Protein backbone atom coordinates (compact mmCIF):
# COMPACT_ATOMS: atom_id res chain seq x y z
CA UNK A 1 0.00 0.00 0.00
CA UNK A 2 1.63 3.30 -1.02
CA UNK A 3 0.45 5.59 1.82
CA UNK A 4 3.09 4.47 4.38
CA UNK A 5 5.70 4.65 1.61
CA UNK A 6 4.76 8.28 0.92
CA UNK A 7 4.95 9.12 4.59
CA UNK A 8 8.42 7.62 5.05
CA UNK A 9 9.75 9.09 1.78
CA UNK A 10 8.45 12.64 2.05
CA UNK A 11 7.19 13.62 5.50
CA UNK A 12 10.50 14.23 7.27
CA UNK A 13 13.05 14.59 4.50
CA UNK A 14 13.53 16.49 1.27
CA UNK A 15 16.13 14.05 -0.12
CA UNK A 16 13.81 12.91 -2.93
CA UNK A 17 12.23 16.27 -3.75
CA UNK A 18 14.08 16.41 -7.06
CA UNK A 19 11.75 13.73 -8.39
CA UNK A 20 8.81 16.07 -7.78
CA UNK A 21 10.16 19.02 -9.75
CA UNK A 22 12.97 18.00 -12.09
CA UNK A 23 12.01 17.45 -15.73
CA UNK A 24 13.34 13.93 -16.21
CA UNK A 25 13.53 12.72 -19.83
CA UNK A 26 11.13 9.79 -19.34
CA UNK A 27 9.03 11.45 -16.66
CA UNK A 28 5.25 11.26 -16.74
CA UNK A 29 4.31 14.84 -15.85
CA UNK A 30 0.76 13.97 -14.78
CA UNK A 31 1.92 11.40 -12.22
CA UNK A 32 4.64 13.80 -11.07
CA UNK A 33 2.10 16.61 -10.46
CA UNK A 34 -0.28 14.25 -8.60
CA UNK A 35 2.60 13.16 -6.37
CA UNK A 36 3.66 16.74 -5.71
CA UNK A 37 0.33 18.59 -5.47
CA UNK A 38 -2.10 16.00 -4.15
CA UNK A 39 0.13 13.85 -1.96
CA UNK A 40 3.44 15.38 -0.83
CA UNK A 41 2.32 19.00 -0.33
CA UNK A 42 -0.76 18.07 1.79
CA UNK A 43 1.31 15.50 3.70
CA UNK A 44 3.87 18.14 4.66
CA UNK A 45 1.25 20.77 5.39
CA UNK A 46 -1.24 18.73 7.43
CA UNK A 47 0.49 15.38 8.08
CA UNK A 48 -2.37 13.68 6.23
CA UNK A 49 -3.12 12.53 2.68
CA UNK A 50 -6.69 12.00 1.50
CA UNK A 51 -7.52 8.48 0.36
CA UNK A 52 -8.96 10.01 -2.83
CA UNK A 53 -5.56 11.46 -3.72
CA UNK A 54 -3.85 8.12 -3.30
CA UNK A 55 -6.60 6.48 -5.38
CA UNK A 56 -6.15 9.15 -8.08
CA UNK A 57 -2.47 8.20 -8.30
CA UNK A 58 -3.34 4.49 -8.36
CA UNK A 59 -5.83 5.09 -11.20
CA UNK A 60 -3.19 6.96 -13.19
CA UNK A 61 -0.70 4.11 -12.71
CA UNK A 62 -3.33 1.60 -13.82
CA UNK A 63 -4.27 3.78 -16.82
CA UNK A 64 -0.65 3.92 -17.93
CA UNK A 65 -0.79 0.13 -18.18
CA UNK A 66 1.95 -0.30 -15.62
CA UNK A 67 -0.05 -2.59 -13.36
CA UNK A 68 -3.67 -3.65 -13.75
CA UNK A 69 -4.17 -4.38 -10.03
CA UNK A 70 -2.91 -1.06 -8.67
CA UNK A 71 -6.38 0.13 -7.64
CA UNK A 72 -7.51 -3.02 -5.86
CA UNK A 73 -4.47 -4.84 -4.44
CA UNK A 74 -1.81 -4.20 -1.84
CA UNK A 75 1.62 -3.55 -3.35
CA UNK A 76 5.04 -4.33 -1.94
CA UNK A 77 6.93 -1.08 -1.14
CA UNK A 78 9.87 -2.12 -3.34
CA UNK A 79 7.54 -2.86 -6.27
CA UNK A 80 5.87 0.51 -5.77
CA UNK A 81 9.23 2.38 -5.63
CA UNK A 82 10.52 0.65 -8.76
CA UNK A 83 7.33 1.49 -10.62
CA UNK A 84 7.25 5.16 -9.60
CA UNK A 85 10.97 5.92 -9.78
CA UNK A 86 12.01 3.85 -12.78
CA UNK A 87 9.07 3.30 -15.08
CA UNK A 88 7.11 6.51 -14.44
CA UNK A 89 9.69 9.15 -13.51
CA UNK A 90 12.78 7.66 -15.17
CA UNK A 91 15.08 8.28 -12.19
CA UNK A 92 18.48 6.58 -12.10
CA UNK A 93 18.85 3.91 -9.38
CA UNK A 94 19.90 5.30 -5.99
CA UNK A 95 22.06 2.35 -4.90
CA UNK A 96 24.87 0.40 -6.50
CA UNK A 97 25.61 -2.88 -4.72
CA UNK A 98 28.16 -5.62 -5.28
CA UNK A 99 27.99 -9.13 -3.88
CA UNK A 100 31.15 -11.18 -3.42
CA UNK A 101 33.07 -9.66 -6.32
CA UNK A 102 30.20 -10.22 -8.80
CA UNK A 103 29.01 -7.49 -11.15
CA UNK A 104 27.24 -4.39 -9.82
CA UNK A 105 23.51 -4.39 -9.16
CA UNK A 106 21.45 -1.19 -9.31
CA UNK A 107 18.39 -0.68 -7.13
CA UNK A 108 16.21 1.99 -5.55
CA UNK A 109 16.00 0.56 -2.05
CA UNK A 110 17.63 -2.11 0.06
CA UNK A 111 15.47 -4.69 1.79
CA UNK A 112 17.01 -6.20 4.90
CA UNK A 113 17.07 -10.00 4.73
CA UNK A 114 18.49 -12.00 7.58
CA UNK A 115 17.96 -15.09 9.67
CA UNK A 116 16.50 -14.73 13.14
CA UNK A 117 19.32 -13.94 15.54
CA UNK A 118 18.70 -14.61 19.22
CA UNK A 119 21.13 -11.93 20.41
CA UNK A 120 19.08 -9.23 18.65
CA UNK A 121 15.95 -8.67 20.72
CA UNK A 122 15.40 -4.97 20.06
CA UNK A 123 17.93 -4.07 17.36
CA UNK A 124 18.65 -0.68 15.87
CA UNK A 125 18.76 0.03 12.14
CA UNK A 126 22.59 0.22 12.15
CA UNK A 127 22.84 -3.35 13.49
CA UNK A 128 20.29 -4.71 11.02
CA UNK A 129 21.93 -3.10 7.99
CA UNK A 130 25.43 -4.24 8.99
CA UNK A 131 24.36 -7.82 9.71
CA UNK A 132 22.27 -8.03 6.55
CA UNK A 133 25.15 -6.78 4.38
CA UNK A 134 27.54 -9.20 6.11
CA UNK A 135 25.27 -12.23 5.74
CA UNK A 136 24.67 -11.44 2.04
CA UNK A 137 28.35 -10.58 1.39
CA UNK A 138 27.27 -7.19 0.02
CA UNK A 139 29.12 -3.89 -0.34
CA UNK A 140 28.03 -0.45 -1.51
CA UNK A 141 30.00 0.42 -4.65
CA UNK A 142 29.66 4.15 -3.90
CA UNK A 143 28.14 6.43 -1.29
CA UNK A 144 24.43 6.64 -2.17
CA UNK A 145 22.71 9.99 -2.58
CA UNK A 146 19.75 8.51 -0.71
CA UNK A 147 19.69 5.18 1.15
CA UNK A 148 16.14 3.80 1.36
CA UNK A 149 15.95 0.76 3.65
CA UNK A 150 13.04 -1.65 3.95
CA UNK A 151 12.88 -3.31 7.36
CA UNK A 152 12.62 -7.11 7.73
CA UNK A 153 9.14 -8.57 7.82
CA UNK A 154 7.44 -11.84 7.05
CA UNK A 155 3.84 -11.44 5.95
CA UNK A 156 1.03 -9.71 7.78
CA UNK A 157 1.06 -11.92 10.86
CA UNK A 158 4.70 -12.55 11.78
CA UNK A 159 7.20 -9.78 12.42
CA UNK A 160 10.83 -10.74 12.98
CA UNK A 161 11.27 -8.03 15.63
CA UNK A 162 8.54 -6.51 17.76
CA UNK A 163 10.46 -3.22 17.80
CA UNK A 164 13.32 -1.69 15.84
CA UNK A 165 15.10 1.37 17.20
CA UNK A 166 15.66 4.01 14.51
CA UNK A 167 19.27 5.04 14.00
CA UNK A 168 19.43 8.81 13.57
CA UNK A 169 22.70 8.42 11.68
CA UNK A 170 23.93 5.47 9.68
CA UNK A 171 27.66 4.71 9.52
CA UNK A 172 28.27 3.02 6.17
CA UNK A 173 32.11 3.08 6.37
CA UNK A 174 32.41 -0.70 6.65
CA UNK A 175 29.74 -1.24 3.99
CA UNK A 176 31.65 0.61 1.26
CA UNK A 177 33.62 -1.35 -1.30
CA UNK A 178 37.36 -0.53 -1.36
CA UNK A 179 37.04 2.11 1.34
CA UNK A 180 40.10 2.60 3.57
CA UNK A 181 39.44 1.34 7.08
CA UNK A 182 41.30 1.61 10.34
CA UNK A 183 42.96 -1.49 11.78
CA UNK A 184 41.27 -2.31 15.09
CA UNK A 185 44.62 -3.52 16.53
CA UNK A 186 47.22 -0.88 15.56
CA UNK A 187 45.10 2.03 14.26
CA UNK A 188 46.88 2.21 10.89
CA UNK A 189 45.10 1.78 7.54
CA UNK A 190 43.96 -1.83 7.37
CA UNK A 191 45.30 -4.11 4.66
CA UNK A 192 42.93 -7.03 5.34
CA UNK A 193 39.25 -7.11 6.18
CA UNK A 194 37.86 -9.66 8.62
CA UNK A 195 34.13 -10.26 8.65
From TrEMBL:
Protein keywords: Cytoplasm, Hydrolase
GO molecular function: hydrolase activity
Domain of life assignment: Eukaryota
TM spans (from-to): none
Cross-referenced InterPro entries: Papain-like_cys_pep_sf
Protein name stated in the entry: Ubiquitin carboxyl-terminal hydrolase CYLD
Amino acid sequence: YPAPSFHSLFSCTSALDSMLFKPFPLCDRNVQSILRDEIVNPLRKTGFVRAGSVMHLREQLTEKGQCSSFTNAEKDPEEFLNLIMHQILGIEPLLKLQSGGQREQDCYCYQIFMDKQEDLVVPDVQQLVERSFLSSDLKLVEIPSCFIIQMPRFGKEYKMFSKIIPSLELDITDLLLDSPRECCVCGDVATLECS
